[in-house]
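Trying the structure run again after the queue cleared.
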Amino acid sequence: MFKHQAIPWGLSALMILCGLSATAHASLQSIDSLPLQAEGDSWILPTGEYSGQFVIETPIHLRCASGAVLQSGGQGNVLTIRAAEVTIEGCTLRNWGHNLTDMDAAIFVEQTASNVVLRNNHLRGQGFGIWSDSTRDLRVEDNLIEGDPELRSQDRGNGIHLINTNNASVVDNRVKNTRDGIYLGNSNNNLIQGNLMEDLRFGIHYMFSQSNRVIGNTTRRTRTGYALMQSRLLTVENNRSEDDRNYGILMNFITYSTISNNFVSNVQRGQTGDDSMIKGGEGKALFIYNSLFNTINNNQFERSNLGIHLTAGSEDNKISGNAFMDNEQQVKYVATRTQEWSVDGRGNYWSDYLGWDRNDDGLGDVPYEPNDNVDRLLWMYPQVRLLMNSPAIQLLRWVQRAFPVIKMQGVQDSHPLMHLPTGHLTQRTQETH
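Done. Tokens:
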């Protein structure tokens, strides 16, 4: 326990202006004799429960002793930060408001609050966890944020919500049972690294943002691991998607971005009732929609309903050095022109490639072409699947092989890799977060 110090009247008044006054339980001091204790350059909040909505309007480093709980009785925000140079560390926040229209949050960081640090806090409630509104240089580190699993995902707040926020660092947090784990809208030059996000709608969700880095995060059991939308100049590297539904990585109107060294495993189609973007769609390890001029390399997409799906003009992307392993279907692409998926004479690894390598250079001697006219027919007319094993379908496939002149435009990897690229590890051998 920290040794209690009496607080002079002037300092008590300052604390009231900071918004840290509260109606405490009977075991705590009254509002005009706050129980904060000075320790170096920090102020310690002792064990106890503090009810109210608190506003911080001057710089302070607030640390909470074990067992100190802040809660707002299900109304509004617990902490609203308006001052720059504020640090909140080691605090437990519960039972704030859950009006999503009013943006109720455990911690609401306003535009004037630059250089705020939120570290090692535990947030549990139904509304937004941390909302950052048009601020700069925010640091969100080592926090645990939990939503309410009894609510539908669309009725929960996001774990960490950054809007018009620049130069933020969101590192090593754990988010579970909220709507989206980390949401960024119109937010540039941010780092999202080392976070673990479980049982959500979207793990990381980008909208209208640029020059962001998404490094070394893990998503599990979300409906979309990484939802990248209407953004550019993203660097998405060394992330993991494990047992997500519908989509591992979704790229929607993404340009001039790099998707590299990511591991996506066991993405399966969602169950009835999921609020997925496409009802009844396959579980897609990578879905690329109307996204151009991106580099997609050295990723591993495995054991999913569909390895990669491209549509809506998603051309002019550089796709090479990836491993597509044991997916029910490797590629889905209805094209108007052939897509070449190799760069500088190096293609991708395909677990179902049946070609050969006579000169032992590690590259297949015949191109890998994952789709044919039968695939195209099935995509256009799903009811044809009833005839999959019929003599007519088998004859059609034979005719395509015998007379390649009738071959439709599609994906072609002219230099498929014969061996799994160095550095690629399966889920069974990769150490998880």
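Confidence is low (pLDDT under 50) at residues 1-34, 276-280, 427-433. Worth checking whether this holds up in the mutant runs.
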